[in-house]
From TrEMBL:
<protein>
    <submittedName>
        <fullName>Ribosomal-protein-alanine N-acetyltransferase</fullName>
    </submittedName>
</protein>
<dbReference type="GO" id="GO:0008080">
    <property type="term" value="F:N-acetyltransferase activity"/>
</dbReference>
<comment type="similarity">
    <text>Belongs to the acetyltransferase family. RimI subfamily.</text>
</comment>
<dbReference type="InterPro" id="IPR050680">
    <property type="entry name" value="YpeA/RimI_acetyltransf"/>
</dbReference>
<dbReference type="InterPro" id="IPR016181">
    <property type="entry name" value="Acyl_CoA_acyltransferase"/>
</dbReference>
<feature type="domain" description="N-acetyltransferase">
    <location>
        <begin position="6"/>
        <end position="158"/>
    </location>
</feature>
<keyword id="KW-0963">Cytoplasm</keyword>
<dbReference type="InterPro" id="IPR006464">
    <property type="entry name" value="AcTrfase_RimI/Ard1"/>
</dbReference>
<keyword id="KW-0808">Transferase</keyword>
<dbReference type="Pfam" id="PF00583">
    <property type="entry name" value="Acetyltransf_1"/>
</dbReference>
<keyword id="KW-0012">Acyltransferase</keyword>
<dbReference type="InterPro" id="IPR000182">
    <property type="entry name" value="GNAT_dom"/>
</dbReference>
Length: 158
């Protein structure tokens, strides 16, 4: 990484401002896709929703947001600050989440969706054991008024 100690912290609604800031940095090239503090407040107030923040020393470097229901969990979003990308941090976040969910003993499957044109994320998820299970056609707004499909992926945690 960068020589700084890496740690992970589960968080809730008290971190909505931080998560919104990190999300905005993560979507710097498409700011219209970044979620607001209010959206994070609403999500984090829901039962079963929590964040997992990756800290490099004292620096919040990235996070993911998860919704856990009965024996399934869904990654709602994941982002890494631009200055910490391409260092394996997203993979470490996913690995930490999967370990937490496995250790909790209740969650059997982990789901996510990804834009069809996000090749880097799709490759990461495949390396992390996710497989394509479906497609949501025209789910995301594309550039110039077009639409992009969402690829649904899942991995088994047992």
């Amino acid at each position: 990484m960068t020589g700084k100690d890496l740690s992970f912290h589960v968080c809730g609604v008290e971190t909505a401002s931080l998560l919104a800031e990190l999300h905005g940095l993560g979507f710097e090239h498409t700011p219209e896709r970044a979620w607001s503090i209010e959206e994070f407040n609403t999500l984090l107030a829901m039962p079963g929703v929590f964040g997992l923040v990756a800290m490099l020393g004292d620096d919040p470097a990235g996070f993911l947001l998860v919704r856990q229901v009965v024996d399934e969990a869904e990654i709602l979003t994941i982002t890494v600050r631009p200055d910490y990308r391409r260092q394996g941090l997203a993979g470490r976040l996913l690995g930490q989440l999967k370990a937490m969910l496995r250790d909790g003993g209740k969650t059997e499957k982990l789901f996510l969706e990804v834009r069809e044109d996000n090749k880097a994320a799709r490759a990461l998820y495949t390396r992390q054991g996710f497989e394509k299970i479906g497609l949501r056609e025209n789910y995301y707004s594309g550039q110039n008024g077009g639409a992009l499909d969402a690829i649904l992926m899942a991995c088994t945690l047992s």
